[in-house]
Design a protein that fits this description.
The structure holds two protein chains of two kinds.
Chain A: E1 18-29, E2 32-43, E3 47-51, H1 58-65, E4 73-78, E5 81-82, H2 87-90, E6 94-97, H3 109-120, H4 127-133, H5 149-161, E7 167-171, H6 179-194, E8 198-203, H7 206-212, E9 215-220, E10 223-229, H8 230-235, H9 240-247
Parallel strand pairs in A: 3-8, 3-9, 6-7, 7-8
Antiparallel strand pairs in A: 1-2, 1-4, 4-5, 9-10
Chain B: H1 2-20, H2 23-42, H3 44-51, H4 53-77, H5 79-86, H6 103-134, H7 141-169, H8 173-191, H9 198-205, H10 208-228, H11 247-253, H12 263-275, H13 278-303, H14 312-321, H15 323-330, H16 346-359, H17 363-375, H18 382-404, H19 408-411, H20 415-437, H21 443-472
Helix pairs in contact in B: 1-2, 1-6, 2-6, 3-4, 4-7, 6-7, 6-10, 7-8, 7-10, 9-10, 11-12, 12-16, 13-15, 14-17, 14-18, 14-20, 15-16, 16-21, 17-18, 18-20, 18-21, 20-21
The chains are: A alpha/beta, B mainly alpha.
Chain lengths: 249, 478
């Protein structure tokens, strides 16, 4: 049976409480303006996709939302807390799968999960489940530096999934995963959102976004060019790919 | 094509260095070197009066060789280290894996790039500083230029020796050690009864044959290295055989340290230290500076009319200072990116590494101190030497941790950070060195003075330690 934690409150999206809020958010790296006046709101229980070509500003926005970067202008809030100031309050409530699969090189997958549960002060009873789920039990005793990129990505996903948070940030989570694992991850994420979790996913794999997201934003050259509800898109008999090509050409 | 690759490699090197430090910090470094060259010439008369003309020139040549060796070591043994700190690090050097260019050719170009880079950014600024300085002394400019040329040959000898060693190291460590011994034996045989380098012998006595030999050595070393580089793929085996799970055990072991940082982080860092075998590397990294120090001690004793005895207390100061290396090693084991996914702060990791520095790596300086003290027949000075070593070590490591965080090596590339580090570390070291050398004259007064300095350094250590939170709490792991 798939293990998805029951998240409190378990009702999905009853009051449309926003968990992510960006207003007038900009980020400059020297002369390069990576994000330009972003306004965005993501509600609790939503599966939200941020889509865009390479270098569009997706990872920059995710890093600001996960307290890893400070914005140059404007404000980003997660659970009503400003990301540039309330680091210690936000971080325990979110889990992150970064763009680069980077589990600790000299720990085994089991030890990585033990580290996560220890730091997050959560029960470590699910470690075996997640090792088995990602077929990492065969890697027992092997340190992460000796794993393939796909296996490392599985460790990163397991570290996020075991964290029992209500909000999950995923940056290109399907890269390097084989189709079977991709499918398992998709199913787990759907179930997670059904139970009240919120997912913010960065991807340029439009097929996955189309299957998973309730809403999506297309970002290009640092600006949100389009904010769409996937149901509306389907009603218009359009695909994400068509819209994406229309915007990013 | 070669010119283009060489040019791009130089661009890459500059960009790599400016990514470690600020652009201003990096480009200020040649100015710092220029000032050093200026000061070296301005104070050359004093040094020659103290040490003797020939001995002073010998020391400059030895330093140039060691500098070349150091620069070459960074270049040829630093790639793995970069990847550890920054994750995947693609350099043009790796181009042969995907493009039709041989490893031999790309490595030779890389070696040429290193020589050009260090010539442009350190040797030429040092020469300019020396030339400016010569205006204020009676040193003849032509003589200065000729001597600088001989020094440059020594620098090239050092950097070529690194290249030569690295080409054997690619095959195995044993090959590298054997190759080093063979070269050193040949070099000693060739120069027995002459000056330490051929170019210096030529400068002092006009021996043209030795100049040619001095010029030939870097050429032979680099040629041997280039020919030695083969197109072989890495055959390093994957360690499939299990590592025993240590995390829970170490978390329990360090639960008492929870007031300092999170025991889980200490456990992770401890496992990293063990499995990466960094402890052994730390141990051997002490050998090089201590060997250099001992050699200088012997050399000064030989050259100076007054006997200077570097005693156990002096080595305590030096070994304490080398604590920076231990902390720096702790920062080079693994990339910290994973920590950015967890609800912890940069300061938690810094404190965990300081904890490991204080509890796990202490045996390395202790072994060296005990050995030096025993070999110098100064076991009576060992307790004081240890106190000095611990105090200086804690002081310098806390400052390094506060000022450079988790990126010690790259931060010290920034000239501004480096100058501050220099100003913080050098004055107490000079004071303690002077006191250590005078220990036999007025022992009680010296001990009181040493105690006062140790007390001040301890208080400053505490201030630096407290400053870690202020400086690093809101920083990212990037």
């Amino acid at each position: 049976m798939m293990k998805v934690l029951s998240l409190e409150p378990s009702k999905k999206c009853l009051d449309n409480m926003s968990v992510i809020n960006c207003s007038n958010l900009s980020k400059k790296y020297d002369e390069v303006e990576a994000l330009k006046k972003i306004d965005l709101e993501v509600n609790e229980g939503e599966f939200f996709g941020l889509l865009g070509p390479n270098g569009a500003g997706k990872t920059t926005l995710l890093k600001i939302l996960t307290c890893q970067l400070k914005p140059s202008e404007g404000k980003a809030e997660v659970f009503g807390l400003e990301t540039s100031k309330e680091f210690t309050s936000i971080k325990p409530k979110i889990s992150i799968v970064p763009e680069q699969e980077s589990p600790p090189s000299f720990l085994t997958p089991r030890e990585v999960l033990e580290l996560v549960t220890n730091i997050r002060k959560i029960d470590n009873k699910d470690i075996d489940y997640w090792l088995e789920y990602f077929e990492l039990e065969a890697m027992e005793g092997r340190v992460c530096r000796n794993l393939s990129r796909g296996q490392k990505q599985k460790v990163m996903l397991a570290s996020a999934f075991i964290s029992e948070t209500k909000l999950m940030f995923l940056d290109e989570p399907f890269i390097n995963l084989d189709p079977i694992v991709q499918s398992k991850v998709r199913e787990w994420l759907k179930e997670y959102v059904k139970k009240g979790g919120t997912v913010f996913i960065n991807t340029h794999l439009l097929e996955n976004a189309e299957r998973l997201c309730d809403r999506a934003a297309i970002i290009h050259q640092g600006k949100i060019q389009s904010l769409i509800t996937l149901d509306d898109l389907r009603k218009q008999k359009l695909t994400l790919e068509e819209l994406f090509h229309e915007i990013v050409k | 094509m070669n010119k283009l690759i060489l040019f791009r490699m130089l661009q890459e090197e500059v960009r790599l260095n400016t990514s470690f430090a600020s652009g201003k910090g990096f480009f200020s470094f040649p100015i710092l070197v220029l000032v050093s060259g200026l000061l070296a010439v301005l104070f050359s008369n004093v040094m020659i009066d103290d040490m003797g003309y020939k001995e002073y020139l010998q020391i400059l040549h030895i330093s140039a060789i060691f500098y070349g060796l150091f620069a070459g070591s960074l270049a040829f043994f630093g790639n793995e280290f970069l990847e550890r700190i920054f994750g995947y690090f693609g350099l043009i050097l790796g181009l042969s894996a995907t493009q039709p260019i041989t490893q031999r050719k790309i490595t030779l170009l890389y070696f040429c790039k290193e020589i050009i880079f260090y010539t442009l950014f350190t040797m030429i600024p040092a020469l300019l500083g020396a030339l400016i300085g010569s205006n204020y002394t009676d040193i003849n400019v032509i003589n200065l230029l000729i001597f600088s040329f001989t020094l440059y040959i020594s620098f090239c000898t050092g950097i070529s020796f690194s290249y030569y060693l690295s080409s054997f190291y690619r095959i195995s460590t044993i090959y590298a050690i054997t190759a080093a011994f063979i070269f050193l034996a040949l070099y000693s045989t060739l120069f027995y009864g002459n000056e330490i380098t051929g170019s210096l012998d030529w400068y002092l006595y006009g021996n043209n044959n030795l100049l040619l030999l001095g010029l030939a050595i870097p050429a032979i070393l680099s040629l041997t290295a280039t020919l030695n580089i083969q197109e072989h793929n890495s055959n390093g085996s994957i360690n499939v055989i299990g590592y025993k799970n240590r995390f829970d055990e170490y978390t329990q072991t360090y639960s008492w340290a929870r007031k300092m940082t999170i025991p889980g982080i200490i456990a992770k860092e401890r496992i990293d230290l063990e499995r990466s075998k960094t402890g052994t590397k730390m141990f051997f990294s002490f050998l090089f500076p201590l060997g250099f120090l001992t050699f200088m001690n012997w050399f000064l004793d030989k050259g100076l009319p007054i006997q200077i005895d570097f005693n156990t207390i002096f080595y305590g100061v030096m070994i304490g200072f080398f604590g920076t290396m231990l902390y720096s090693w702790l920062n080079s084991i693994d990339t910290p990116y994973f920590y950015s996914t967890l609800p912890i702060q940069v300061s938690d990791i810094i404190r965990a590494r300081l904890f490991l520095f204080g509890t796990i790596t202490w045996w390395i300086p202790l072994i060296f101190m005990a050995l030096i003290s025993y070999l110098s027949n100064e076991l009576n000075l060992l307790p004081i030497g240890l106190i000095v070593m611990v105090t200086v070590g804690i002081y310098i490591v806390n400052y390094t941790a506060m000022s450079t965080g988790l990126k010690t090596n790259s931060a010290l590339f920034d000239a501004f950070v480096f100058i501050k580090f220099f100003l913080i570390s050098v004055p107490p070291m000079i004071a303690m060195t002077i006191l250590s050398l005078a220990i036999n004259h007025k022992p009680s007064t010296i001990l009181v003075a040493l105690s006062i300095i140790c007390g001040i350094l301890s208080l400053l250590s505490l201030t630096f330690y407290r400053g870690i939170d202020t400086k690093w709490n809101n920083e990212s792991f990037d």
